[in-house]
Amino acid sequence: MIWIDQAVARRLTDLIRRLETARPSLAALRDALPARLGNTALFFREWMRGPGMVGAVCSSSRYLATEMAGLVPPGNGLVIELGAGTGMVTQALLDHGISPRRLIIVERSEGFVAHLRHRFPEATVIHGDAANLCELIPQGLPIAAIVSSLPLRSLPADQRTQIIAQWRQALSQDGSLIQFTYDIRPQTHTCASDHAFSVTHSRIVWANLPPARVLHARLSVRTDSLPNVLAVNQPADPSP
Ligand SMILES: C[S@@+](CC[C@H](N)C(=O)[O-])C[C@H]1O[C@@H](n2cnc3c(N)ncnc32)[C@H](O)[C@@H]1O
Fold first, then answer.
1. Which atom of ligand 1 is nearest to the CA of 240?
2. Mean pLDDT score of the chain
């Protein structure tokens, strides 16, 4: 039999009571973490949870983000940002003059979604999969641009095909598709006329880890075959 004197028993009881009352505040702290973590820590945590889905080892540099945002044409149509992560590109889009009312973000990671909603309360942040884009966004409104940081090359081929088919369906005929890739080789092969998208402009941003190529593409005149744009047929690697 274990003998505990009254003083020790009282202290133990007191400790247990304090731990019980602390539990809700610990839960609140854990819930608040995504909003309070620095971008790097948040990115690392989400990368640990799903390296293939995040597809990069750190968030985009502001140079890459600014290059992407600068390719969004002026106008009134909606701007859809896919895979916003920590919000580097989102911030650049707002800095570029895109009203948060025109901006719809689709992000699959719950942790990033919590962070984005906290950081950009005026933008619409949808927790969802870009493969279901047309079901997630408002119907009947013109989509002026899709700005994507999705890790296309590390996603399964069927998912990639589905995502690009959704772009083709959602984007206005004269809309812009903006995507970056860590494959910095010239992307001329993506301009073939039987592809759904044609690259109209591309530029390497060296000030990013690793350097990345930003592509601007438009719907091709012919849209009767599945698109092959943006390194769709290249081997999977952990990069967009
Ligand atoms: C390369 S990271 C984006 C980095 C971001 N530009 C930043 O600076 O933090 C790719 C992002 O795409 C998201 N993602 C991956 N697959 C997705 C999907 N099918 N639908 C929506 N988001 C997806 C990941 O959760 C991640 O946030």
1. 1
2. 82
